[in-house]
Write a structure and sequence with these properties.
InterPro entries: NAD(P)-bd_dom_sf, SDR_fam. The chain is an all-alpha fold. 47% of the residues lie in helices and 0% in strands. The protein is built from 2 helices and no strands.
Length: 51
């Protein structure tokens, strides 16, 4: 990982997930893009609720 070594040296660190609005309102012209954004939004939301 690019920043893993740097983040392990810090006392506290965070990863910020930025998804677009297409995660919530899919666009018919870009179904794969919308589905990927929805997947990552749900993945990070679930990971955040487990901590």
């Amino acid at each position: 990982m690019l920043f893993a070594q740097f983040m392990t040296t810090k006392e506290s660190a965070a990863i910020v997930n930025m998804t677009s609005g297409l995660a919530f309102t899919p666009l018919a012209m870009a179904p794969t893009y919308s589905a990927t954004k929805a997947f990552y939004q749900r993945l990070f939301h679930n990971a955040d609720s487990r901590t």
